[in-house]
Please model this.
Amino acid sequence: VLERADFGEVANVMKHHGFDGADAMLADLGMSSYALDDPQRGFSFRLDGPLDMRMDSRNAIRARDIVNEESAEELARIIYTYGEERASRRIARMIVEARRRSPIETTGELRAIVERALGAHRRGGAHPATRTFQALRIAVNHEMESLAALLRDGPARLNPGGRMLVISYHSLEDRPVKERFRELLRAGGYAAIARKVIKPSAAETSRNSRARSAKIRCIERSAP
Ligand SMILES: C[S@@+](CC[C@H](N)C(=O)[O-])C[C@H]1O[C@@H](n2cnc3c(N)ncnc32)[C@H](O)[C@@H]1O
Model:
């Protein structure tokens, strides 16, 4: 059975199909390279396109809605919390100034605003718009809330001996996984199946640079 649904819907999807328990759950979080490289999806500041960023195109809220409609305070909060961007207030202020003239509709326009707010791009470092784009993407897709629901509901629906694996791609995603698994191990009923977080080998990252930041954490439900 293939089901197109949010990770956070795991409990409902299992119930809907009458599955009592899972032997394995694998959550491969984050972005798809196909979506990242498609300008029409609006995820990348490297490609000009509509400011969309919805992972599921059935959802109503796009990045352009947040950028044009949220208050400066809320924009700063999003950019600070989900982008870990120290200049979040300055970027938010410049977004609000720019949208007064005309709505911000493209990734190129947003990128130019962030560049103006942060100044020139230092060579070698990440592009200054990276953090703002990540933040908006997380907000548009309520990624932290979906992950929290998956981590809340998934482990309890594993069969005895069943395993849950989560692949995360940045620290904001990894932290809740690490904390939730630690909490389950402490509470009992679950066992660790790897002593440490699993990272890709140098050979893998040289073949596929986007694997660079990937981390796998896993847990096994113990037999009663
Ligand atoms: C890293 S990609 C991996 C895709 C697939 N495992 C593969 O190897 O081709 C992550 C995928 O999960 C999707 N995704 C992200 N957050 C999601 C969520 N909360 N619920 C369901 N899918 C999500 C993304 O749109 C993307 O297609």
